[in-house]
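Running this now, will post back.
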Amino acid sequence: MLVVMEKHDSSFFQVGYYEGAERIRKRFDIVVGSGSKGQTYITRFNNRLYQLPVSYFTAADKWANSPQFPSRVAVFNRPITSRCLECHSTFAETIPGTQRQPEEFNMNHFIYGVDCEKCHGPGAMHVAFQTQNPKEAKAKYILNPAHFSRQQSLDLCGLCHGGRLKKTKPSFSFVSGDSLSAYFAIDSSRPGPQNIDVHGNQLALLRSSKCFIMSSTLTCVTCHNSHKNERGKIALFSSRCITCHNPAHGPVCKLTKTMGSAISQNCIDCHMPAKASKSITELLPGDSRPTAALIRSHYIAIYPEETRLFKSSGKIKY
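Update: finished.
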């Protein structure tokens, strides 16, 4: 079957053709992904949601088979579950009493994208109070993750960046500040970083890093500002490495002796290199093997080969 992207009236569709005849047509109803790595698309049928067979792969600037989809058959019936949506939206209400799978959703109670409430908790009471009390400077009905303990902060990020968590309670039960272990079966086996995919479980990779093990305060927000788009700002992230890795605190990068202070502009390519994901792979048109998305590893370590390539690339002048 050939799948073609088409526009009809004001909507976009993925249309399946077999022997020149249209066999199936499904609309782009929901877009998932910022586009930095790619985007995939969801269609709605009654109250159920399904992933469409073709995604956009940014690195190649091409359409491609959606990740993990079969290469010879166009599949239009892969269901989207509430656990999928828990990471890719702020809230989705399942319709109670529907026993059949896949789940059915109340599309009138759906918060698309990842917005403020994902980290700050439900905001209705906050909005109502501040509207009635505009001069009140202290928020009373909203959560502030800046006041969380280290574990609370890690659990909040781990909800979406902690790998394939198996839920023990309904999706969207977890609220910012809760303990992740109260809602999910946490894998305590601690596999080696070489066995962890760079896409799904950045938290496990970070936990395996010496930087994390040697610190009592390091969390995801030590390096990431969730209120700003800092993607790709290597020098900025490197400056955050230097807050610990400096002569006053140590240890200092050994390449400082040969490269001088310029090395502080890019700690990332050597110590957090981009690695091929095993789970996010796209089969491009005409290819027989899928192409993996390159995602920066959160296992902070010494990578001799990456360092050699970095030095030979001329990215740092010395």
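The CA atoms of residues 223 and 240 lie 6 Å apart. More later if anyone needs it.
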